[in-house]
Amino acid sequence: MIRIFTCALMLLGLAACETTKGAGRDISKAGQAISGAAQDVQDAL
Known about the structure:
InterPro entries: Entericidin. By secondary structure, the chain is mainly α.
């Protein structure tokens, strides 16, 4: 029982690392889009 729980926990940990990595990329892209929009507004002023 403990072995199954440990294996499941390890698999979830690996999946979480990949999910966090993907989320970091998405947040970075969103930040770049916001920066670009802010620059466009500054240029328009």
